[in-house]
Model the fold of this input.
Amino acid sequence: MNLITGGAGHLGNVLARELLERGEGVRVLVLPGEDIQSLEGLDIDVVEGNILDRESLRAAMQDVSVVFHLASLVSITEDGSNLLEKVNVDGTQNVIDVAKEMGVKQLIYTSSIHALERVPEGVPIDESLAFDPMNPAGPYDRTKAQASLLVQAANEDGLDTRIVCPTGVVGPFDYKRSEMGELILSWMHRGLHFMIDGAFDFVDVRDVALGQILARDNGKRGETYILGGERIELPWLHQVIQKVTGRKSPMITFPLPIAMIVAPMAEFSIRSPRPSPASHVTRLRRLSAILRSAVIKPNKNSVILLDPCSRQ
Done:
């Protein structure tokens, strides 16, 4: 039996579908009262619980041989850093401890490309890079790095673990609308759009799910695997969406140096208590997320080592 924490999320529900196609048993851990529309119609075992509650983890891990730990909290600002640490770091430690206690054979942890240390321009990005718990880019990056180090330590302590680091995940079954999903949807409607001269490595969510399974089946104990796709220029992506929808809208493009200045102001606008049109704040939030991605994007000459999981 496979257990997926965060199973109702974008990547979680796609991983569940991939495992079901292989005829494997799937159990997903969801928060009490969580929207599980993404899991409707799937022949899986759904259990309510919380990675901060060890007792609920014990119940979820009954008769489980493999745990895919995906549950985490995402934030694009410094707000809520304490909660991020509690969920992403303490929650992961709980998963590790209970997995050991319950005799789980493998733990596959989904980290992030953002958890790896930043490298100078021209230096290849690969799995030899260390996880950086002091990353200045933001609390999400730091807490994912801290959690990854806990998983590595667990491997040294006897638990069979593997870590996967996806780049920018996009694709179908995005029921809860990820940050990138929301941005793409906003580009499908008429109105003022924000853009920067940047690029990022995006990967199909189905390839990431397959990569997780390959890490389980073919990966080496204690190893880390970057799951990347293709480096895409954001203005090009915007043009493709506009062409497909047949809707053209005015766009403000920020050069990267200017974007570095605008990003903190965008985050301030999110936190500001003064009234603001909802659509404007939403666009600022999406812009801020993309600015962060562009600033820490893989360099043009970077080498992203991929699992053999490209879709045909």
The first strand starts at residue 2 and ends at 5.
